[in-house]
Design a protein that fits this description.
Blueprint: E1 45-49, E2 55-57, E3 61-68, E4 77-83, E5 86-95, E6 101-104, E7 113-122, E8 129-131, E9 135-138, E10 143-147, E11 155-157, E12 161-170, E13 175-182, E14 185-195, E15 201-207, E16 215-224, E17 231-233, E18 237-240, E19 244-251, E20 257-259, E21 263-273, E22 277-284, E23 287-296, E24 300-304, E25 312-321, E26 328-330, E27 334-337, E28 354-355, E29 362-366, E30 371-378, E31 383-390, E32 396-400, E33 408-410, E34 413-417, E35 422-429, E36 436-443
Parallel strand pairs: 2-9, 11-18, 20-27, 28-30
Antiparallel strand pairs: 1-3, 3-6, 4-5, 4-7, 7-8, 7-9, 10-12, 12-15, 13-14, 13-16, 16-17, 16-18, 19-21, 21-24, 22-23, 22-25, 25-26, 25-27, 29-36, 30-35, 31-34, 31-36, 32-33, 32-35
């Protein structure tokens, strides 16, 4: 139920504006360019796109490509974005001549400008580089929102219908997203897409939810779809959850001993009004391993444990309400018999990657949800042979130091000639097709 008649506002998203005011739109595109194109003529690379004086809006995609003066240069070059003479962003570590790179123009860039340009740099010799011509990046959507729904000491009942109204100022975006936050913590998406173009604003009928339970620090966030930087919060209000009660896990208990790849039944009881859907999760200590299922109106669930679980005695089951996350319970700790980890654990991130030496194979074991990381250093021009073996064995992905795009996806064996000196990484991940023991090796200098 609502109480009070004050106004709950969502403020302007633009950082510099703190009140409900109109925005100054972006400056018009100049009709005359007084500076040179900005392209350099070192003779190594020619940027074909973006072209001179091209106009690009943030939150759109731009195709970048170049041609090299010879085939060797065109095999591997890094692409950078500059604003004038200042580096703004490293776009990609590797782009081949004549092939496109699709870059999403994010709004986190510096302000609108006519002096953006692309720089192509040879990875093997950084003195071999060229700038492309100047082009323009601009923000074409500036605006503000204000929620005009009565609030004040508003209290909303979970499960009830509540109409959200808002106004928009300037050119904020024809579509917006509405989200619910519990103070600064995201709680749920109210709606992923709603029309904002009806007379400079909009309305949405929301079935009130309180996924974090009852609380008085809830607030609504409105976000531009095309330009997420145009976003703001409402004031705080209270939600009283319609869901209450408790759970008790009957099975498994402290005497339980399960085994990988075998079937078992989880049993529990509930009281009160915990909601019609229940989430079941498997934990190892404090780490959530697996969402087993979301089920409707039941107090038991039969399932089969995944293969190659790590043996341990610190497993537990969590039962929780899908409608009020404050309603949950853990089972007693119990044991699962599976397989042991390999000697290189923990190695489940780049930061924990283990060094692999040429000619010395490493034997690893992929357990459930496991990832193994390796690293090695190499100099430009060095030659390596990678090999992976096992039944079944995983795909090995080879990366440059700062890249998220694999250079090689290794199935069995692959030759590799190093183009750029540096640290390289490799990873292998568990899946339902790839698990258990495997061996990874590299042969080289």
């Amino acid at each position: 139920m609502l109480s009070g008649n004050h106004i709950l506002y969502i403020a302007l998203i633009e950082i510099a504006l703190l009140a409900y005011v109109s925005c100054t739109k972006d400056t018009p595109i100049p009709t005359h360019i007084t500076y040179i194109t900005g392209a350099s003529a070192n003779g190594f690379f020619n940027v074909g796109n973006p072209y001179y004086n091209q106009v690009i809006s943030v939150d759109t995609s731009l195709e970048i490509w170049y041609n090299a003066s010879n085939a060797v240069l065109g095999k591997d070059a890094a692409v950078y974005l500059y604003k004038g003479d200042t580096l703004a962003q490293r776009l990609t570590d590797s782009l081949t001549s004549g092939y496109p790179y699709y870059w999403h123009v994010y709004a986190s860039l510096p302000k609108t400008g006519d002096d953006y340009r692309i720089r192509i740099v040879n990875n093997s010799d950084t003195t071999q580089n060229d700038f492309g011509p100047f082009f323009r990046i601009f923000w074409n959507d500036l605006g503000a929102f204000a929620i005009t729904t009565s609030s004040g000491d508003t209290t909303l009942q979970g499960g009830s219908a509540f109409m959200i109204h808002w106004n928009s100022l300037g050119n904020a975006d024809p579509y917006v997203r509405l989200q619910l936050y519990d103070d600064t913590v995201f709680a749920q998406t109210i709606t992923p897409l709603v029309n904002n173009s009806d007379s400079g604003g909009g309305a949405y009928s929301w079935k009130v939810g309180a996924p974090a339970g009852s609380g008085d620090r809830y607030r609504i966030k409105i976000v531009s779809i095309r330009h997420p930087r145009i976003a703001a919060y409402s004031g705080y209000f209270k939600i009283t959850s319609q869901y209450y009660g408790s759970y008790r896990v009957i099975w498994p208990d402290s005497s339980t001993a399960w085994a990988s790849n075998n079937g078992y039944t989880i049993r529990w009881t509930d009281s009160g009004n915990v909601g019609s859907y229940t989430a079941i999760k498997l934990y190892r200590g404090d780490d959530s391993l697996l969402l087993i299922d979301n089920i409707e109106s039941d107090t038991c669930y039969s399932w089969v444990l995944p293969r190659v679980m790590v043996s341990g005695s610190n497993y537990r089951i969590k039962i929780s309400s899908n409608f009020n996350s404050s309603l949950f319970v853990f089972s007693d700790l119990f044991s699962i018999a599976g397989i042991g980890t390999d000697l290189y654990e923990p190695d489940n991130s780049r930061a924990l990657a283990r060094t692999i030496v040429g000619g010395v194979p490493q034997k690893h074991t992929l357990t459930f949800n496991d990832t193994d990381w390796f690293k090695f250093t190499a100099n430009s021009g060095q030659y390596f042979l990678f090999h992976v073996a096992g039944a079944p064995h995983p795909v090995i992905h080879i990366y440059r130091e700062y890249s998220t795009m694999p250079l090689i996806n290794l199935l069995t064996s692959n030759n590799f000639t190093v183009i750029k000196t540096g640290t390289y990484y490799a990873s292998a991940a568990y899946s339902s097709d790839f698990y258990g023991d495997y061996t990874f090796s590299l042969t080289g200098p």
